[in-house]
TrEMBL record:
Keywords: Cell membrane, Membrane, Transmembrane, Transmembrane helix. The chain crosses the membrane at residues 12-31, 119-144. It is found in: Cell membrane. It is a multi-pass membrane protein. It comes from the Bacteria. This is Uncharacterized membrane protein YgaE (UPF0421/DUF939 family). It comes from Geomicrobium halophilum. InterPro entries: ArAE_1. GO terms for cellular component: plasma membrane.
Amino acid sequence: MRLGARIFKTGLAIILALYAANWVGLEPSFFAGLTAGLTIQPSIYRTYQRVLHQIQANLIGAVLAVIFGLTFGHEPFVIGVVAMISIAIILRLGLDSSTIPVTLVTIVIIMGNSPDENYLLFASSRFALIMLGVFSAFIVNLVFLPPKYESKLYDQIFNTTVNAARWIRLTTRHESNIQSRREDLEESNDKLVDMDQLYLFFKEERSYLRRNKFAKARKVVLFREMLTATKKLMGILNRLDQHENEFYNLPDQTQRLIQQQLDRLTNYHERILARYSGEVNTQMTGWMAEEVDEGNESLLELFKESYDHKKDGREEWLSLLLFVSYIIEYNEQLDHLDRLVDSFFNYHQDD
């Protein structure tokens, strides 16, 4: 069992909230701990946004709880009505819907088992407990283990790219085990969803220095295009998997051309990623670029020849069209990504 950063931070937030509640003399302290556990977020920016929304949502719930409690009492029916009205107002104001659970906790602990006397003081102490938990989560997320989404995202992109390239090399050489490939392909497709989420977290992270803001903005664009390139590579692998028989029915020369061009492009792709991480200092060499261009020309020439004779082999032409179009799109995306990486290092050599 692995303790992730978010699990660790959740535990720390609960501990801090419980100790803080005991220190200031607010009881029962477990309300603060409960709120801290519900409020922790995966990124600093999201925690900041959540705190702002949570303060507003809790105020709405607390004010309604006090007004209805003083006016109509504390019957379960009244508590339910307050909860419904609070949810409606929160959604109407466009506040984050994730604030609703803590707001409901606020309403219940203010209206449930409340004393007949000093009701306002009781409600204030309960509200203070909830807000103590919210701020404890914010402090922990701000101070302890700030998430490094850039490195996590890069590692996932690089590993997924290398893995997809390996399966493409094996499949185009008729050497892959179908069951193993499909199991790995399903796992890799799931990782694409995780990478989209990591990219969103990375994009939300804020830089406070002007110089860093420009570098961060460029990195956001870079990682978006890295993701796109990896998705296009995964698209080729998915097409090979789905149309494996059509690929194997192509003439040997055609298969060899596709195989060689995919080898060049996956090497090109890995080189771009390695250059971003600092493992490679230069762009693709002249002879490598010539090989990629010649490979594209050969594929296009072959496609034209196949088109001229498509009446004799329409299925072969359609299969070739499928593979050539994906390869050309992938190549164009790699060229675009390569230019972006080159531009990034021209302006931000130290980042």
